Amino acid sequence: MKRALLFAAIALSGCATTRSDPVATAAAAIAPAVPTGQQWLYGSAEGAIAVRQTYGALVSYAVAKAKTRPADSVIIDEATGKPFACGDKPLAAVFDADETLIWNIGSMRWFAMQGSDFDPAIWDQWEKTGTGKAVAMPGALEAMTALRAAGITPIANTNRSTANAKGSEATLAAAGLGDFKHGDTLFLMGDDTDGSSKDLRRATIASRWCVIAMAGDQLGDFRNVFNKPELPPLQRRALATAAPYDALWGNGWFLFANPVYGPSIRGGFDDVFPPETHWEPQP
C-alpha cells in the first residue's frame, strides 16, 4: 500500500519531478501540512515578537516592583480569595514551563507529522528524553538573567510529571534558562494531591516566596477556577476579565499567546460566535 501511494504521488507530480529526487517529492506530497497554530507560534515573526514583548513587559514590571517590596504576592489564597502576604520572604517570579519558558518544538513537530494533537505516552517519553530539543522562547534567556540580577528568583510551576523531574530539570538547563531544582524552584504535577490543578503548588510557593510576577500560556497557570469544564468559552472569558482579575493582567499576571493547545481552543460556532452577531450576505 505504501509503495502504491508513493508511485501515485510521483505520477501526480508530473514533469516537476524529472529534475528532483522522486522519493523526496513523493514524501513531500503526502506529508501533512503544519497546523496553522504551530506555523504562527513556532515559525512566524509575529509569534516571536509577541512573546518577546510579553517578556519585556514582565521584566520591567517585576524589576520596578522589586525596588518597592510589595506587601502582597500576586498569588491568590484560594481559602480566603485574597493575595498571600509577602512579609520578609525572598522575591520570586513564577512561570509555567511549556510554551512559557520553552517551546516544545521537538515533540510538537512529531505530533504534527503523525496528525495527532496529543499522546500522553509520547509526551511522557518527551519529558524524559527531550533534552536539547526544546528551545527557550524569545526573550526568555534575557528575562531570566535580568530577574536574577534584580534579586528575583525564577520558579517553574508546570504540569510535567514529578516522575520525570530529572528530565525536566535537564531540559530547562539545556535551553539555557539556568538551574531549576525540583522541590525548590521547580514544582511538578504529582507534588501534591491536586492533580493538574496548580492551586496547591501555588500556595506552597507563596508560603516560601514573595511572588511579584506570574506568567503562563493557560488561565490555569494563574487560578484553576478559570478552568471549570462546564464554563462555555465566552463565560470563561468573562470570568477571567472581570474584576478583580482585570486589574492583574499586565500588572503582575502575564499571559503568553498559545494558539496550539489548551482549554482556550474549544467551542462550536454558537459558543464562539453569539447569535446576535450572525450575518450573511444577501443573494
The CATH H-level homologous superfamily: HAD superfamily/HAD-like
Shape assignment? globular
CATH architecture verdict: 3-Layer(aba) Sandwich
**Biggest sheet features:** 5 strands, parallel
> Which regions have little confidence, pLDDT < 50, spanning 5+ residues?
1-18
Strand content: 5-15%
Supply the helix-strand structural class: alpha/beta
Assign the CATH topology. Rossmann fold
Task: Average the pLDDT over all residues and give the rounded result.
Answer: 90
Keywords: Lipoprotein, Signal
InterPro entries: Acid_phosphat_B-like, HAD-like_sf, HAD_sf
Organism: Blastomonas aquatica
Signal peptide: 1-18
Report on this structure:
The structure is a single chain. The protein is 40% helix and 14% strand. The model is unreliable at 1-18 (pLDDT under 50). The longest helix is centred in the N-terminal third of the chain and has 22 residues, at 45-66. By secondary structure, it is α/β, with parallel strands linked by helices. The termini are far apart. It has one domain: HAD superfamily/HAD-like (Rossmann fold). Strand 1 and strand 2 (83-85) form a beta hairpin. It contains eleven helices and nine strands. Strands 7-6-3-8-9 form a five-stranded parallel sheet, with helices on both faces.
